[in-house]
Each structure stands twice: as C-alpha cells, then as structure tokens.
C-alpha cells in the first residue's frame, strides 16, 4: 500500500505544531494510515486534504487505534477530514476517541469537508462536555464538483457516550444515503441524535441498506430540523428496512422558531418498520417516527410489524407563543399495521394531530392500545377520511383501572364534514367506550358532522360489565351529566353483527341539547343490526333494557329504513329529556323481542314499520311514555305470542295514563294454539285510539274473548 505516512504496531505518534497541513500525492492511496497505534494531537489543528483512492480508503485511515485529543487551545475543529473529490474523507475502523480531562469544552470534535465518512466498530468516549455540540460536522462542499452528496457506506458498532448532543451534524448539506448500512449504534446517554440535519434542501433516504439493532437510549437516529429551506420541497424516505431499533426515535422532523415554508412534503414509501420500540417517558412528545412539523406527510405502501410504543406521533408545537403549528395534512395509503403494542398510559401507537388526515386502502390487524384507541388516535381540525380499510382484532384496554376508548379508533374532531367509508371492523374491543370507534368533538357546533357509510362491524364489543357503552360505536362524552363535545353523526348503509356492550350493543349516543352550544343530531339510515345484545347487571335497573342495538340520549334521533333482526330485550333504547320527538320510520324488525324501551318528554311516532315475529311491550313502570306514542301504517305479522302489550302488568304502580294511537295498521298470520292470548293487550292506564286497522288470519284461543284486542279494566 502506498501512503504518505504509515504507522504500525506499537507506534506512538504525536504532533505538537499549531497547525499541520498534510497534502497527499497522486500515487498514494491514503494520506495517513494509522494501524494498531496511538495517535495524540496536542495543541494542534490537523487538516487532511486532497484525498484520492478507492472506496475503502480516505484522507485518513485509522484502524484498530486510539485517537486522543489533548489541546489547551480553543480549537473549533481539532481534526479535519477534507476531500476535494468524491472519495472518502475519513475511514475509521476499530477506533476509540478519547479526550484528556484537562481539555476545555470543544465546539466540534471532527470536521469533514467532503462527501463521505465510514465508521466501523468505533467508540466516542466523553469527547466534550457541551450539550448540543456535534461530534462530527460536515461543511463547505466544493461546488465546482456539481452538488456532491454525503454518503455513508457503513456505520456499524458505534458507541457514543456524549449526552444531549449530535453524533454527526450537517447544515445546508445535500445528502443521499443510498446503500447506507447503520447497525449496532449504542448511545449510553439520553437525548442525543445520531445524525442531525439542519436546513437541508436535498435529503434522500432512498434505497438504504438495513438500519437495525441500534439502541439510542430514547435518542434520535435521524433528526431533521427544517430551517432556511426552499418554499416547496419533498423529503423522501423510500425502500428501506428499519428493524429491531430499541428505545430509538428513528426519524424526528421539527423546525426552528423562525422557520417558514409554504409547501414542504415528507414522504415515506415502500419502507418496512419491524420490531422497533420507543418507550415513552411521561413527559415525552416523541415516537419511532416523530412529526413535530407543519408539513404535509405521506406514508405509502409501508409495512409496520410488531413495533412497540409511539409508532407515528404528529403533534403541535408552540413557537413562538401563542402561535401553534401542526401538520398540514397526513396521508396513509396502502399501508399495513400488524402486531403493534403500546405500553404507556395515554394515547396510542398512531397519534395524529393535524389539520386533515386521509387513510385509504390500509390494514390494521392485532394491534393493542391502552387508553385512546387500539391503533389510531385522530385529532383533526378540518377533516378526516378513512376509506377502504380493514380493522381486525384491535383492542384498547387498561389494566390500571382507568377508562379506555375506541377498540380501533379514537377521534377528537373539530372539522365540518368527515367520513369513514367502506371499512370493516372485526373483533375489535375496548374496556369502556366504543368497541370499534369512539368519537368526540373539539367544540359544540351544529356544523360538526361525521358520516360513517357502508361499513361493517362484526363481533365488536366493550368489556366492562356495568359501565361500558357502545359495542361498535360511541359518540359524545360523559362528564357528570354535562353535555359537551357532542356533534352530528350520520350512519348509512352500515351493518352491525354480534356486537355487545353493557349499554347499546352496537351504538351509544351521549346526551345533547338544542341550540348552538349543546347540539347533537344523529341519523341512522339503511343500516342492519343482527344478533346484537347488551349484557351486565345494573343494580336497581336489573329489569330495565338498555338497548341491544341502540342506546340514544341524543337531542335529535332519526332511524330510517333500517333492519333489526334476531335480538331481544329493548333493541332500541331512547332516553330524551327534550320536547323534540324521535322518528322511527320504514324500519323492519324481524324475530326481535321487545323492540323498544322509551323514556321521553315527547310524543313518539313509529311510522311505516314492519314487525315480523317481533312482539312489542311498553309498560309505564319501565318506560316513561306519558306523552304517548303512535303507530301509523305499520305491519304486524307472523307472531306466535302477541303483537303489542301496553301497560301489561295490571298490578304494577302506574302513576299516569298514556295515550296510544294505532292507525291504518295491519295484523296478520297470528298462529298461537296452545294458550289463550290476544293480538293487542291494553292496560288499565292506557288511552287507546284504534283507527282503520285490519286483522287477518287470526288463529288461536282468545284471552277472555279478546283474540284481536283485550282491554284491561281500570283498577279501583
């Protein structure tokens, strides 16, 4: 090997000049080779330049040696690697970097003027004491070469002991990390960064090699700070694998207080994140992918498997106060999230605070959250769209006794019109609120609307026996009977199958009031509920039904063209203390026992509905229907017991007379042979009006002569 200077085994080399400049001849492969030696730089500023050679050599090659800096002067750059072409500026292998205890704090340990540095099996041990100072800094590219880009061929087995610092820092330096392999980096102190990029207009992480088995002690692998960047630019992370990086923020994007940009996009595509973790401290705002930026962010065709902790966290920052910046929009397209776990107390693995969020064509399987969503927590100020996605076996449970919300998705919404469309939720569950979805609103406004359309909910449930709500969906917030954070919701063309909860087997709507402050309108249109149920024991309410399909306290409730089948025990429970009547229109109840429980301060109209083998019981001991109810143009068919029982128990304590009108209804195919019975039973405290009704195909033994109608005499 030809070289300018070669030091070998058991050699000690010292330089004592103020500055030494070593220039390399064209015939040498390396300017300086140090192998199995001790190199001490005392009171000097070393500059290595004009490197030529192959990819395995650089301006300085240091192999199996110790480089110790012992200077009493304030040298900004004790060691400078310089390359004026595209070769390696420094190649360091099996090296330990030390600093004498007498050395004052240094700004930077090594400066690289060039485009490439390779580090293999190196250790930096307390090289300086200033927090925030980088170990390596790259600067001053030679623009005559075009625009060369920083490259790492390898960065393996590096140990960094410096706290709150950057291992490598680049400022306004174009970077291309294609082919870079970063393995086994260990930080022994918190809050440090492996590579910090500042104000970079050209940054590409395309086609990287494996980034794996790093442990940064809650530090950051790639820290990108946006400052002085072009107004429009896209940062790309493409076709890379990140595996088994423990206690590590792999990416952090943030910006300086003076940063301003109109259109910055951060795009992750065809990346795979596997078995990475970030175990959050209670005060941390950090994640495996930490987005503290007002940019647009895109995840496309990425795979996330068996990661733990905050996976993607987009949050706001106040700079300067009271200005708040947050992500402009976040898109997740064609991605898969599997086996994600979250062990911390609050939020969930995907926590997205943004102006808008779009999630399409993605799969979420076997993920576990602890408080706010099994896999996804949304806080959007404008709108969100979740479309063509699958949520399977996502859970949100909390073993420390605190409440948990949203087996798959937790939503806090401040926009005008958002939707969840054509999605499937299967076997999702939570402890308390919303087995699949929990939605609340940033403020009370008539314009807040969420539409859930063409979605399927199968075997979704809540788990807590007495105080859990909405086996599939919960909307609103319970704050000791203060109705806040409510908004409007439309459910259209959705199916709910075998969903369960203590209250509202499929759906639970919290309270709402008329007006701009407390407003909540709910519309259920063309939905199907099949074999849903409520469960649990409720003390004084053991005999009361709490909505096998729906439990609603909303201000306005419309249920139209929906199908309920194979259920019992109060399929729809409505509790309202306003004078605005609920509307139940053109619905079908098939093989349902006791479709309604009502507690109302208004008259209720049930129109154009079909009751197929679905007997109705309304008893003033359980139901509060003092303002009355009406059945209009309804069909009652195919029962084997009875059609309607009003105030059934003659010995119950009925304190009021409630009116009931049955108009233009048909009763047919009544087939009970074994015991005396009736089509309609009217209790002694019911004021019945029967107009223009038809009774057809009645067969059976009448109850005291009233096969079509039996009216209980008034008790004395």
UniProtKB/TrEMBL annotation:
The superkingdom of the source organism is Eukaryota
Q: Which residues form the signal peptide?
A: 1-17
Q: Is Signal there in the keyword field?
A: yes
Q: Which UniProt keywords apply?
A: Signal
What is the official name of this protein in its record?
A: Right handed beta helix domain-containing protein
């Amino acid at each position: 090997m030809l070289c300018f200077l070669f030091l070998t085994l058991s050699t000690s080399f010292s330089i004592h000049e103020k500055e030494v400049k070593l220039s390399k001849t064209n015939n040498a492969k390396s300017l300086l080779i140090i192998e199995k030696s001790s190199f001490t730089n005392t009171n000097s500023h070393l500059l290595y330049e004009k490197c030529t050679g192959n990819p395995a050599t650089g301006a300085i090659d240091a192999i199996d040696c110790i480089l110790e800096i012992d200077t009493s002067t304030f040298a900004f750059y004790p060691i400078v690697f310089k390359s004026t072409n595209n070769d390696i500026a420094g190649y360091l292998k099996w090296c330990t970097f030390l600093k004498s205890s007498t050395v004052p704090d240094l700004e930077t340990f090594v400066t690289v003027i060039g485009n490439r540095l390779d580090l293999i099996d190196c250790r930096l041990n307390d090289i300086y004491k200033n927090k925030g100072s980088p170990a390596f800094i790259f600067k001053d590219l030679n623009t005559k070469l075009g625009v060369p880009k920083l490259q790492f061929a390898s960065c393996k087995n590096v140990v960094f002991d410096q706290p709150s610092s950057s291992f490598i820092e680049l400022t306004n330096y174009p970077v291309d990390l294609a082919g870079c392999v970063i393995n086994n980096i260990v930080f022994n102190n918190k809050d440090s960064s492996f590579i910090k990029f500042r104000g970079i207009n050209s940054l590409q992480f395309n086609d990287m090699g494996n980034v794996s088995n790093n442990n940064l002690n809650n530090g950051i692998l790639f820290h990108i700070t946006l400052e002085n960047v072009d107004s429009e630019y896209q940062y790309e992370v493409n076709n890379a694998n990140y595996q088994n990086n423990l206690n590590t923020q792999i990416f952090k994007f943030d910006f300086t207080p003076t940063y301003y940009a109109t259109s910055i996009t951060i795009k992750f595509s065809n990346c795979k994140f596997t078995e990475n973790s970030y175990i959050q401290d209670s005060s941390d705002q950090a994640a495996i992918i930490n987005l503290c930026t007002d940019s647009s962010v895109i995840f496309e065709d990425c795979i996330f498997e068996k990661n733990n902790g905050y996976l993607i966290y987009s949050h706001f920052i106040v700079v300067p106060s009271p200005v708040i910046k947050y992500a402009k929009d976040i898109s997740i397209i064609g991605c898969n999230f599997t086996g994600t776990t979250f062990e911390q107390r609050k939020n969930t693995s995907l926590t997205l605070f943004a102006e808008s969020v779009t999630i399409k064509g993605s799969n979420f399987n076997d993920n576990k959250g602890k408080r706010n969503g099994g896999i996804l927590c949304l806080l959007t100020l404008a709108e969100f769209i979740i479309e063509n996605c699958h949520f399977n076996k996502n859970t949100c449970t909390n073993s420390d006794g605190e409440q948990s919300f949203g087996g798959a998705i937790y939503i806090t919404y401040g926009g005008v019109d958002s939707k969840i469309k054509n999605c499937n939720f299967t076997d999702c569950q939570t402890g308390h609120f919303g087995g699949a979805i929990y939605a609340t609103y940033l403020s009370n406004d008539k314009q807040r609307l969420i539409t859930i359309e063409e979605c399927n909910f199968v075997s979704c449930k809540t788990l807590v026996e007495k105080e859990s709500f909405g086996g599939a969906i919960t909307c609103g917030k319970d704050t000791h009977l203060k109705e806040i954070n409510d908004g409007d919701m439309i459910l259209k063309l959705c199916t709910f199958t075998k969903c369960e909860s203590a209250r509202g087997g499929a759906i639970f709507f919290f309270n709402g009031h008329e007006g701009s402050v407390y407003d909540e309108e709910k519309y259920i249109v063309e939905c199907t509920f099949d074999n849903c149920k409520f469960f649990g024991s409720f003390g004084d309410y053991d005999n009361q039904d709490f909505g096998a399909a729906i439990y609603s306290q909303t201000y306005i409730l419309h249920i139209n063209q929906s199908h309920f089948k194979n259920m019992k025990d109060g399929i729809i429970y409505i509790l309202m203390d306003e004078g605005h009547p609920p509307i139940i229109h053109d619905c079908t109840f098939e093989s349902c026992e006791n479709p309604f429980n009502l507690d109302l301060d208004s008259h209720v109209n049930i129109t154009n509905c079909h009751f197929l083998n679905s007997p109705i019981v309304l008893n003033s001991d359980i139901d509060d229907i003092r303002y009355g109810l009406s059945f209009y143009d309804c069909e009652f068919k195919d029962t084997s017991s009875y059609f309607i029982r009003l105030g059934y128990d003659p010995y119950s304590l009925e304190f009021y007379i409630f009116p009931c009108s049955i108009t233009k209804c048909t009763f047919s195919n009544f087939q009970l042979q074994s015991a005396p019975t009736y089509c309609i039973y009217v209790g002694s405290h019911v004021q019945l009006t029967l107009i223009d009704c038809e009774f057809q195909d009645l067969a059976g033994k009448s109850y005291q002569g009233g096969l079509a109608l039996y009216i209980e005499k008034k008790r004395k």
